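Issue 218. Parser rejects a valid record. Input:
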Amino acid sequence: MSGWNEKAVPDQSGRIAVVTGANSGLGYVVARELARKGARVVLACRSEVRGSAAADRIVAEVPGAIAEFARLDLGDLGSVREFAASYRYDYLDVLVNNAGVMALPYGTTADGFETQFGVNHLGHFALTGLLLPTLLATRGSRVVSVSSGMHAVANVDIDDLNSERRYRRWIAYARSKTANLLFVHELARRLAEHGADVVVAAAHPGYAATNLQGAAPRMEGRRLRGRLMDIGNRVVAQSAEAGALPILYAATAPGVRPDSFTGPSFMMWRGAPAASWRAPWTIDDAVGERLWAASERLTGVAYDQLKV
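Output the parser choked on:
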């Protein structure tokens, strides 16, 4: 992986990619670079205004790019179902589960789930399950879930998935990122048992400058914290372009292993894509199975194609 960059992304001509949260930050860069290599990219975003503008910007930046907006609100399972039902292609090569929220004040989704768990994990769990028949029908398809090095802060609490007993924003965020990795682990295991050639992997951007860090301070009107986040992005963080590289690697590079975790090479913080350390609880089969069962129950999305 040494020195791997966006120029190494293989030709994507004739392929279709869905990227969630592609209107800005990491998702926008991933969508743009996939389009640059010839993929038809579907920008799955909550805001039609921002999503359509992002698709137009990609077309303006990349000659010949094919980019389109489709509405998807991961905090509303009805919207997730509508997106999957309206997906109009009979194949899907790459699904990048990128969208997310971080360290927000306590809130709930349209379906009553704690926002970070509901958006970061349950929304993507449901989306992947609903698109699974199309992914299975596409030879060599991939699913990439974007986690974070922050997953190391906390394991999921199966008995309190929605943080109803006590809400601590950073712990809730870490748990949602652990859930992303447990989802990848369990989905990879189930796909292997069924002999499917869908590759499901995880990636993280290290510390990359995006608008994610400033979302919570803006919501709460905490100007000083917002300014500190902005300073950190300018002084310490790597660019969104650099942060997107591990995601692009997991989505396109030859030989990516199922259940692998790719991140920046230098201390999981910055640098070229490399195999990343992950907490041992993210490869716990028993916890993965319990989270899977809970996720199916909470979302109402059953992965019937992978039933024994």
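Fixed in the parser; the record now loads. The domain at 11-208+240-297 is CATH 3.40.50.720 (Rossmann fold).
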